[in-house]
Amino acid sequence: MARALYIHWPFCAKKCPYCDFNSHVRASVDVQLWQAALLADMRFEAKLAGGEPLTSVFFGGGTPSLMPPELVAALLAEAEQLWGFVPEIEITLEANPSSVEASNFSALANAGINRVSLGVQSLEDESLQWLGRLHGADEALGALATAQEHFERVSFDLIYALPDHTPELWEAQLARALSLGTSHLSLYQLTIEPGTRFASDVRRGIFTPLDDDAAAELFTITQQLTGKAGLPAYEISNHARLGEESRHNLTYWRYQDYCGIGPGAHGRCGGMATTRHKKPENFLRAVSEQGHGIEDKQALRPRDQAAEALLMGLRLIEGIDLGALSARFELEEAQLIDPRGLARNCDLGLMWRRDDAVGVTQAALPLLDALLGEVVADSLVDA
After folding, report:
1. Which residues have a Cβ under 8 Å from the Cβ of 370 and sit 6 or more positions away?
2. How far is Cα 230 from Cα 179, in angstroms, rounded to an integer?
3. What are phi and psi of 185, to 5 degrees?
């Protein structure tokens, strides 16, 4: 059953123009009301997905570092009582690198957070302003230093392939990021998501995204520099020293069971898929009326689960174990992977196979979406 718990805090101080996550700006937040609702949602979820002690808890958002540390402590205490924690549990909280939020880092560490993921996004003030961030580069560096004082493990995010990014500019910024001493980096190419302000800006001709060839060159630089620095990619956009990978995110990519509570949270547990109400007010109303925030709950067929497991697992450098997937979902290998498509892409050096293990070569990771269309068996696509 569930080995990981995701807790969504939906509130932000400001909506960033590139963000399509479930985040909302509100003039005020009733913390006591939200604590009661999240605890109720968690207790209901534990009845659905009890079982083994949790290996990870992840506070995402929104901006979870805006949560009072007392609320974080209360949620963790309840989770430990409901599920239990393994001795080496990873407890991550996403945080903005502002000086105001950094002032809470000591209290958050005392509440039980042992890993923090900072949304730095850029080390250049001009880029941060363009991305709509509220912090500056110096403030972010100060928050990073504070985080490294208080948490056992620290990661931070950068967004690259911005419209003005040249290889020289990105190489210099990434080299500086790698010198800051964290054991994990999340490096995302700017994606123009539907429904965001950036999508509107592109449609109106306000800016033009970087073209695919230029972005691919920056991806190559990213792989080279992180590899030399001892933080190679273990997933398309995530880099870590050996043993410092995000255990929580590996739960998703390895298609292991996890619970999700809070507005818009998703869960996959025991072959059931759950989705919570996204709008904060609708979530609160649902909890008040039915004791939980679930909007939709569906039993997933083995073929549906196998398709999701392939889509997630092929993001990883380690690839997937076809034998294990076949046994888990009681499907033949040919029902999972098109043998001709796999052989063709292996011959082209885009994919590899070692016994039952199959994966995408590092150089071909930017082509993953296209490769999936060629190698995922038709029986899963049409399921």
Report:
1. none
2. 11
3. -135, 140
